[in-house]
Protein 1
Amino acid sequence: MIISPRRRTAAAAVAFVLVLTWVISGEASHGRQDDASWKRTFELYRDVPGLTQQEIDFGAEAILGLDYNAKRVFRRMCLMEGIDFDKSREAWSALISHVLSYEQVLCFEAWSEISGIDIDLAIAALPQIQSLTYEAGKSFRQYCTLPRISPKHALNTIPLLIRLDDSRNRAVQGLLAVEGIGAGDALNGIEVIARLNGHQARAAEAFARVPGMTTAMIGDALPLIRQLEQDNAWNARTLFQTAEMTSGDAWYWLTAYFATPLEIREQQFRTFNDRQKELLVGAFYAGGEEIIWKINNLHGVTDRFGFEISSHDLLNSSDKQLQERFEMLSPQVQSRFGSNFHHAGGKGGKVAVLKKATAADRVETARRLAAANIYALLAQGSELYDSSFRNILVPVLKNHVRASFGDNLLTFLKEADPANQLVSNFIVSLAQKGKLTTLFPDNPGEQQRILDLVAESAFKDEDSIILFSATFMHLLEVLQPSARTFLISRMNRQADAGTAAYARLIAVILQYYLEEFPHLLLTEDASLITGLLARHGTVDLGKYLATPFGQWKEDGRLSSLSVFHPDDDGWDSFLSNARMLLAGGYRPALSEQFTVSSLSDSVREGVTGLIAAAQADPASGLPPLFRSMRANHYAVSFDRVLNGIMISHAAYVFSDEHHQEKLMERFVLSGAEMFAQRGHSYWRSEQITDPLEKLVRDGRLSENDLRAKQRFLSLGSCGGVKAYTRLSRMFLGHVDILATIGTGLAVINDPYNKSFFEVVARNPAAITWKDMEGELAHIFQEGHGRDYLQPGSLPAILHKILDEEQTAAAEEIIGSAIGPERG
């Protein structure tokens, strides 16, 4: 037999380890006495039949050379038929050659519980078990617990399991968790699961895990789930996961609704009772983020992570890569554009067809959704790109309302959402996006009936009130005067009937509009508000307009960090921002403060040259600087001294989770004032919320760190008041925020972030947020950025009021726990 050099080297290494353990020092031998894992393993080994004392002593040293995981496996082997000294040596060699992870050790242990395993089979199984991925290993462990399976039969499933991705393996785990399932049914189910796509697999897992699931039911369900379209499967998965779902209900929903054509689903929806509609619409809303992500991403050609692929990169792609991207589109769109794509003249032609087909798939995705599903997505308005909202979903829903509900929005709302879960969010989103008139009735009476539904939905909790406040002006502007008066009257009644906290928030909303926008109110409206304030009291809104600028300027420095994503949008934003700063007299330099990776001397030298080139000729110098920042993980600052204050705007290109955690930690602990998140809204979690949550969870940032400074967040991406609320809470209320509830615009973000610090540097520390708004009003001229929420806006004031109340309540609880002070 010819032995390869690689195998010869491995064999020599194993022999060396065994010889080394034979001659190991007495000091190491003494150390084993304190090794509990070694002790347990050795106690089992010395009971192996037929060992001589010399073989026992040899084994004692050999076991010491095994790592913890290998010791655990060898302990199982010591109990198997056929184990002796020669097989032990063979096992030690195999365990050193095939290093198992902890999860793979658990797989071996589960498999070793099956009767009929001898030492030869156990040693032979090690390479197969080593091939198991984490999720495939979990599936294998469950499979090993099934009744009446043989060891070899279990091992034969490994090649199948390792070919499945994580979502399919989790579906397998759900299948194997069904009570009473046998090996035959399990294998049949796994064969179907292997043919499921991602969302179908997730639906299968959720279905299998519904309490009371039976083998027969899951066996019948899997072929039906395989027929579901991706978005339909995702919605099914969300519904199956609801707390009150039973196996009978899950089967009903699958067969009566999800596994039927869209036309039948629309008809079926009308036959459901109010509770069934509430469950389904709630599932559409809860699962909306995934479908919103998909529709938003179809605004251009993107990769599986949502990164927009530049035209340059597409043109440099191979024909095979372009073909793969085309095949990611829906079957309907592939059929429609397939001929043009395959017969396109050159690379440029294929890219053009791919872009056109991607845009068509965006519309096709909406057309394949049920009307109630579109309604639930529109209720999350600020999460959708303006183009997704205005140009895709609203026109499709309008067609549904016209064709099936007599073009009557009120009829549709009562039919689609009898529980009134989302009416307020839906209506204010339409108002905010400028599409309310597309669906809203002209009849004042019908307007009032819809506004009654809005009020019931909008004032159910603090979060819904704040969301309502963010778009209240949009609503007032489009309502008929009589409907406007009706809404204000309804809010008065709601405040009088609600809790003290809710009453205060509603009163503050109306007080704010009475003081700031009286032109939107009729005399009758103003009288209603004045009466409400007389009953509930007014609030000094001015106290919530104070700024932290005095603290900021104490060290003579104002520092910001802007994070750009490495896609087309981030590229464009970086270039426009850098050009504006350079034109404004800012000088670029390597930012030591926000460079969180070590740079070699050669890289530093190259960075110096790139920065100099960018300053000398921004048009040609900035693009290579951006690419270098992305590749080498460093930040560049743009610095200027104004009125004795050093202003420093650092820019960083997002790279990965690890670097972003270090960057966020540096931002908080260094005392920087502003964090600007640039790029698409769906990167907000990677850039801010995920790293911040992990830093707090790991104890690297404390509450004191977050409260040490009142910071400023500039959210330049398409945003939403939900993100605004979440970030305010994550920073424990110690943050002021510029955000947009519509589309983020570089023509707003660039000058605002630049001018913001300049206004702070030029003016006294006592200026208010209202003063700041006046100083920067030129940026928002001609209606630009009217969807932006600036510090001092109504939602900002409401957040500060809630933070005050929550702090006071917490202090009261602490005071009660401590008890009265005793003299």
Note: The mean pLDDT is 88.
Protein 2
Amino acid sequence: MTFAQLFARATCLQQPYGWQCRLAGGEAADPQGLFSHGTVCQSRLIQIPTGLGKTAGVVLAWLWNRVCPQPSVIGDSPAPTSRWPRRLVYCLPMRTLVEQTADNVRAWLANLWQHRAELGLSAAALEELLWLASEGTPEHPAHSPVILMGGEELEDACRDWDVYPEKPAILIGTQDMLLSRALNRGYGMSRYRWPMHFGLLNNDCLWVHDETQLMGVGLETSVQMAGFRERFGNLAPCAHWWMSATLAEARLITPEAPARPPQLQLSVPEQSVLEVQRRLTAVKRLRQADASLDGDHAAYAKSLAGEVVSSHISGTLTLVIVNSVERAQAVFREVRKQSPKQPATLLHSRFRPAERRALVRRVLESAGDHIVVSTQVVEAGVDLSARTLFTELAPWSSLVQRFGRCHRHGEMTDTGADIRWVNLPDAEAAPYATEDLAAARKLLAGLTDASPAALASVTAPPAPEAPRHVIRPKDLRELFDTTPDIAGADLDVSRFIRESEDSDCLVFWRGAAPEADSPGPSREELCPVPVGQLREFVEKQKDKAVWVWDALDRQWTHPERFVPGRTYWLLSSLGGYDPGLGFDRRSKAEVVPVTQPVPPPEAHDEEPGTNLPRIETLEEHTAAVVSHSVQLAADFGLPRELCEALTLAAQWHDVGKAHPVFQAALRRANPALQDSVLYAKSGSQARLVFEGRPHFRHELASALAFRALAARTTPQASLVAYLIAAHHGKVRLSLRSLPGESEPPRPPDGGDPLYARGIWHGDTLPALTLNGAAWPAVTLSLAPMQIGLGPDGEPSWLESCLALRDAPTLGPFRLALLEALLRAADMRASAVAADAYGKPRS
């Protein structure tokens, strides 16, 4: 098999471009793809003009190097372990780009599986491809692409990507969802699963940051995170690709990454290829529009819509790109008013997924004679080719991208295309800086040709020196701890993901107020809304009919403040949404809810994976978790000492379920359980109730038992204890009591009682036998929750955890990956894959 064969079977195109061949096979690769070798995965900048297959180039380069035959492979013998990362993480700034990219990847994988017999793949490569794609049967579903965009993936097989960390995966998501997970504060997901994604996304990944000109501060964060992965180390290396037709190279140099990666551009021979030449020299006539914004927004919308309608050529696409959602809505209303019979569509980022998909599909499938009014969501990556383009003034890099949506493929050979730019006053520059617009205005003044070849000769203005929040090592170390502060608040990462005015939360509408067991929202219900706009919208309502989930109190409560990345429940009667306009503060009509609910969000004292419809003893479950842990450690090639630590943590992870409080809860759920047996699973799907011990966490009891019985004779005892405690993501660095816990009686000396997460100082666990080892009864000590050395001379829990986090041989990324491996082993041993909210599925 050659790369050209794989490329052709995947994309149904004749052959790859030369730059795609160099990316997949190295600088010396045959420009027609007639090679059968791979290359080394390394970080790089990719600057390729629009319309030349960047998405296909990067995805198929990764896939080729995962499955391509190696010189040492003979017949169907196992292929050597690929040096390319297991996970391709495709990070995009816009939701519209996510859906289109995912559709393409899904089609490419399906095509390759369909033509697998023609490719001569090894048995190991076929196994990887089968996992990624699908055989079309329930036994072999597709596991990629995984979509992370405004909530969790809905397909079961894709949603469980973190339960199978040893398998290949293609993750495609917005920078909000992906960067927040890489920072251990994942938006739109259970907080208790944050550490898993933190560990997996900072180890063994090829990060692709596409359309970097739209990323804002997320670009600097992505570069800093690349530097952190080098600085703190990981168990499997990561590589990083930054892609755009207009790379701002100066912004790719940060304190943690002072050296710029090598750059991939079109070579001179590649530029002379006929297909490339046609795109580079496509005729695009450029002039200033008659309409301009002078402060009267209503008059501007009417004027611009009039010019658009009069300029539209029947049978062709006219694209209008404006810089704000509210202006786009106003212009769209005017277009419909002035030309009611003209097919027209509005696109922006404030739609629910179902409506957004329908609108995008309508635009992409229309044969012509269409007016599309949009914001920046079509600025890049969307395969539109307009005959006429109107665009508001924007930074030069954005304008270049917008021009690329016009006469995109050089197909309008007879007529060419027309572009009109709309001037904006400085007062209307937002969301851009006035100096950026001034620089672009100056360049446009003398320009009449917007073809890629003409634009290449324009000296772009230097990247702005706008002040941005740059994440520092101290910030990352603090983010490792996922415990909320005493007030219940978390460290806010939104300033590292988008500029403050762009920070979104997620909202969904329901017809009634929530109850404690109300189904949580599915991704199909969620609409992204700027935090400030939601705050203003709610404050204007007479009824504050908005709620947010409180994991500690196990209920939906009225929020005291609105936080980026959080999910809010709104009553349908409040309005605020129109299927054709998206989120609209002016809309008073009742919103029709989307009915695709998922289980209720996870509470702190819930036990996902315990309320299964089958009985399992503690010894049976422990043996299964140990087996899965050993296999995962081997799959990842962990060093011997880490294999031993992971295995020992698996042996001890559920010892705390022997606690009388836990066993009593199991028997309340299933009275048929025998009194003489210690159980891990009740065989009942009833929720466990820990009477008298709210917020009870068995994993804390497990860790304390290990410290008391085995720590002194165990190398790396602190690591083992941490992994035991952290295996549900609820007990990590901080040991303290939570609001609503029951306080034990005061000790005889009159001091303050020690208690945390439902465990009381002095609790006892019975004697038990696990994995062939017999352990005596043990009294649990909560002395480690106090600062300083304990009575046994050991450091406090917090101090020992911080030492692990800061250890050069571990660090935050290695430690989090070990957490993720133990959690995956536990989930798989339970024959359960926990969904986004931690609820089990059989």
Note: The first strand starts at residue 44 and ends at 47.
Protein 3
Amino acid sequence: MDENLQLAVHKELTESGVLDEDWSVLVIAACEDAGMVEDVLGGSAAPAPLLEEAAELRPKGAYLGPLTVQGFRGIGDEVTVDLQPGPGLTLIVGRNGSGKSSFAEALEVLFTGDSKRWATRTKVWKEGWRNLHHARAAQVQAHVFIDGRPSPTVAKRQWADEAALEESTATVKAPSKSPAGLEALEWTEALTAYRPFLSYNELGSMLEGGPSQLYDALAPILGLEDISLAQKALAVARQSRENLRKQAKNDLLPLLEKLRETSEGTNDERARACLDALGEGQAWDLEVLESQLVGGPKDPGAGQQISILQQIATLVAPNPAQIKDASTSLRNAVANVEAVAGTETERASETASILEEVLAFHAAHGDGDCPVCGSADALGAGWRTRSEAQLGELRQAAQAADRAHEELRSAITVARDLIHAPPAALTWCDEVGLDGAPAAQAWGEWAKGKGLQNAPALAAHLEDTAPALCSAVEELKKRAADEAERLQDAWRPVALDLTEWLGEAREAERARANVPLIASAEKWLKKAENKFRTERFGPIRDQVIELWKLLRQQSNVRLEDVTLTGSATRRAVDVAITIDGADGSALGVMSQGELHALALSLFLPRATLPQSPFRFLVIDDPVQSMDPSRVDGLARVLEKVARDRQVIVFTHDDRLPEAVRRLNIPATVFGVTRRENSVIEIRTSQDPVTRSLKDARSLAATQELPANVARRVVPGFCRAALEAAFIRMIRTQRLAKGIAHADVEDAINESTTLTTLAALAIFDDKSRGGDVLAHFNNKYGRWAGDVFMRCKEGPHQGFGGNLHDLVNGTENLARKLLVT
């Protein structure tokens, strides 16, 4: 975006108090570069700091010089229109079919490569572009006088024999430079924004194309295209994010259907949980979705169906081999205990046990009576020595009995350790649709053995309950595994699709978070654009209304306002009019002539903006459908525009040159005549010098004009003829030095007397007015000095000599000046 426009946006952000808003950086980024929006949103970049306001650069103005055409449209052999570069009105007049419009079309094609005459029409309209009577290559050439260049730049477009219209070669030859392409003029964008050509077709269709087409013609001159591009960058950023959400939402629809089918077909709680997390009309709970996809909580109490099934499928039932070993160990241990029962070994073991208890009593209470038999003083030191020796003998004798009893205790412990309470997973069977009652009942019976101390009973319990338990548990485990596999088979493809969609959804949600920021930036920039558009179009609007006032001559239609509104598909130009005070629609009530006048009012301000490099306008046949009074208005409008623009008008209607003559508007008039075989003749029928002399000669011959009036008026026209000659000399000489056109016109306007104008023309120094008379006398003779003085003084003091001689002398001097 243009730096000054960026600064204008930044200033508006500041003045509207929103510069600190989070979204304002997006406005600045969009104005800097379309790609910067994504960089800022992604956090990888920030807009560059704004520089100070740059000075507005005005383009180098360009005027047209001689135009040469051959073999194009109605023009056969080479012919030249000797256009004079500089402000002023030029009329090129010829009847329909004379070839005059071919010059206008040639200029348009020279610089644009096409013509509005046939651009939107069928191919047949283009086929007649090459002249039928010209055997050589077609060519259009124009001299372009550009500010700051002492010599003209020559623009040329030519076609080889048999080449199509589009197969031309366009070149530009600037002074002291090699030929280059037409782009060397740097007019590509300007030809769209400030198009200096207006054909009759375009004049008639400008309003008929509708409000949006007229908007497209006017909007570029405001220089706000970059804001539209910035808005587009923001809109693209917003829409791309909204589209991610829309796409994710659309992609979810078939997945939701699959989830419903899975939930209904398998009763899979994961499917139900995902449906709840992604239900329509609510925010997506992607965390819940992810937890289901990665397995979710392992706590069965959380209702994880697949987890319950997996736990049931992995239940550990009693091991038959271990049960058999435990039962065998119990029975063997019982047999061993029974084998030592009633033997000396058992008695030794029992005696040893009693003796151990008495020794423990003696250790605790000291010497005394025997606690068993009551013998007095039986327990003493001697007794203890004898008893400890006896205990050792008894223990050695009781080892077999002790070992049998220890093995029995160990066998009971091992057997009881095999018995556990029913696992919690059995209580969840109903939740997953399994019948766990047989296994639970069998396990309950099995668990009752945990408290048995009797070895034979415990062995019998193991042998009686284990087979039923193992069978019931294995059956339940198989059913749980089958159900889990069935659920997994149904869930797996859905889970894969959901996993892929989850990544898409997370990206969409991340992107969606920035949508409100982007929308706020977009809304503000659109509002700012409307403000800038109103401000920049204001001066143009005023010019349109002012020009319409000149053109509306005796029309009941009053142009109240012209506004540019909307954007994109709603863009339009609103033309507000009233008819005798009542509101109306321009297209509905205006005559064709009024519509042409309105179109011209809209075209001229656009084409004459200071930002345009074109100091020339080319208008083809603007008079058609205009009534006589409106033609006078057109002449006044052209006069106004021609004060600082080169206005070239092609017309077949004699009313326009007649109005120009009658209203005494300075103009150069060329007549165009077509001879046989497309031979075109150009003659100068009027220029400011000859026209003034013609008017002077006519007044001098008018008998009805009072003599005292004629003595002042005729010298006045003679003076005007010399002024026109001096002005032409000044423009030719100064432009050849490379002086800017604007500076040339300023110098002319500052030379307010005939003498200073002559000094500027002759010496290029308006301060040398005292040398003018001597110059004329010395160079041409005394008669020339006399003519100059009579033209200078006559309009004020009156001229008492022969008026016809004065006119002839003025004509002679003017001719000598222009050939010098």
Note: Residues 320-418 form one domain.
Protein 4
Amino acid sequence: MVLNFKKIFILVFTVILLLGSLADFVSIGYAENTTDQEKKTDDVTVLQEKSDIKSLGLAPNEVVVANGKKGSDLLDFEAFIKPSDIVDGTEPFDKSNEAGNDSSPNNGIVRTFDTVTYPLKVTINPKKHDKLKDIKLKITGTLENGITNKRVNAKFAVGGKEDLEKGIVSFDMEYTLKETGNSLMIPVTVEVQGAEHGIKLKPNIKIQVMSVEGKDILNEQIEQSFENISPVTTSGKVNVKARINQSYSTLNFRLYRAYNPNAAESNRSNVFGNTITFYIANLPYRNDLRGATFPNGKINYHFEFSGRVTWDDKSLAETVLDFESEDTPIKIFNYGDIDTEAKKIPQENTESFELGIENYMQVNPHVAFTARSYIPKDKWNADDIEKYTINSVWDSGKTEISKPEVGKEKVVYKASVKDYVIGSTFPTMHAHTTNVPSFSKNQKAFSTVAFLIHTPNEYRSLGKNNQINKPNNVYYDLKCIVDSYEDSKGNVISYNTSTSTTITERNTVNGSYSLQNAFFTPDGKELGTPNLGYSTVSKGDATTIVGQDVKMHADLNVHAVTEGGAIIVYKWNTDSFYLTKEAGERAARDIISRGYTSLLGTTISNSDKQKVYYGIARKNDNSFQAITQNKEEDYEWYTTYDEARKYGEIAAIKNDIQDMFSHGTIIERGIFFKVKTRKVGSVNEKGTPNIIATAADIFPTADRKTRYRVAENRAYNNYTEYDENGVMTKLQSPVKSSVNFETLGIMNGETSSEVTTNKTTYYSSDNVNVTVDNLVKLPGEMDFTYLDEKIEMRVKIPKGLDYVVGTAKYGDQYIEPKIEQQSDGSNHLIWYDTLTRSNKVLKKINFETRINPVLLPQGNQVGLEIQNVLSSSMDTRLEKFRTSSKNISIVKIGMVGVSETIKKLQVKKIVIMKLGCSHIQL
């Protein structure tokens, strides 16, 4: 009996120590009294000692913010926000509370781009049952001053919605408590955006019990509201930047005549496209955006344009442009939004406006290396708003410029922008795509505008200022200086930041042309490491499986007016690739239909000035040296496929453009090959490399007396090499942009997979269901009689996710994985399968993981990545090609379940004492 008493005492003492070691609160046992006595003090509820809230970590008479119905005949319900638990800001903190600073996590001040967390603590205890299950809770709320002056100052991290037109910031989230016996902490987090300095943010929060065990109890109105939470004050310092991007609307330049139909045909002046972007960045000596914010009113800035000329003849000195003498001043032809509207209207004080041009058409006006200028207002509250926010600001506002001030070496335009709208999202991608980044995480763009700059081009061959006909380059320096901004009270705040760029008029052939090559699958999939933004770039690691066809992509990039046209030769190794008659004739049609760029920026297709020919190599030499360096004269050319085949296998196609063309890209996308070689690696059965290449001859003058060969002096070092097992040992050199050859590797098989989860956002109390769909591609002509290929499927689950033993299925069978623990806290789950004659397909993997809140990274909402890697002897590509991944988001919910444990111990004194202990923030 004494022994049993000692055991009970030790057990109870251990439980007390455990409770004392937790970090915020927990409810012990059931509420003794469901009728809480309370009194009011300044509209804030003060709960008396008999309230169960005392058992949740509050001292007697501590002020809490709560009102509403706290229970029913079915259950007792407590929810509160303890003021001292509210955390306004995150580490590290500053030494002062000046604009942009915050010295403490509980001083009522929060920096911009920081967070405020309101721990909403909930306890539910049954009255008539030992336990209740599946208690559905709904938490909603709004944020006072969440939107002011066309700006979203803050938003809710989970379930948030911002209505700019109505000026309302709100949130709506649901959570299901699996069973009573757990106390709950739900963090309601406000994410401060680029708020105005000194704004007071005040959330109003409501929590309601929706249903219990599937039964709707909304009519009982069991809810708590929090409408007297003390506001926090935002702290922000303006840090606006400007950025100039060239090549607006796919143009580096176009002839002025493309925009002014009244210009003389002899006018050879140019128009360059540029964009100006206003954004904010992190304050000096900080590595994130905390404390930085946007200006409140009009931004005043100005342009300074200048220019200089450098000559290829080094005996001629660099010339600075003189706009008061022999050089015509640079002008702003027009400016406007970056959008899909092709018809552009001249703006006041621009050259187009002064000339009385009514309108003009802009080709691809949405294409730019910055964000779009606005989201259509009818899409602001659309369910698919993410389609627009990824590459667009909300509203760039109104831009105005002055008339130009022309000086000797400088042209100045004063400008301003106002009435911009700042939402809760900021663009990351280019205006014309959703997969090419334009901004880093610390760059928040809010206004973009396109400018067309008119340059006189007076230093062209035999131009007004180049009668000596010497090759040269003209550099136009464009500088944008932010002078000041106006705050919300109309005060003008002086500012000084600048950005610049240089645009070039090339009056020399060298550097004006480049060639690109790449392999693709017949259906258009890029082979090799994807090159974001421009896929027709050599990678060196392109591969395909035995027997799979490929196609060749080749580009000639043009940055100059070319009066005599060009000859482009697309060539390949005939030991590795075969061009069928159907493919050859298709390629000719494709080349002619894609055409070339006119002086006005339009595409000329199906012209009688463009011819296609089929080439037979003069020498039977498929060496690396021969293919990379063969020129037009190294082939015999024929007008038809059938005629050429009489003399051998076709080894090249010639694209002969006998017409003037301008800036743009001459594209080839239609040369389809049968892959002849079956040998693994990059060398075929005859010992020559699997390569394609492109050569080009440029004719600067219409008489074609002068020929310039693109990349004529290029050094070709090596093609990509593989060992006998198909493992890459050396990457081709040169490689990447402006390289006119590409290597293809051959593999015996190709594996791939897709990782999916049952949701994308989870609470920390949830389980994550993971599915991995594994695929294998084998050669179509393969003899499967002796197929015996072992495949490893390795799923990498990060620290914070624990595999639930017994849940794993491979196909329809429960098969437990091999588990390897990693030093970084992650785990690898490994399955194996063997491909055979009767088993040529990999199966799906399905399993569950339990979220381990203790091991999650810091923060109320965190992201994790699940990866799957396939390994085999037949697919020896780099691991990145055999890896797939899935990202999930986890919202932390604090929870500890002690009531049930204490109840089983039947230690009544512990229950009556209603011990208060801290909750672990999970």
Note: The chain has eight helices and 62 strands.
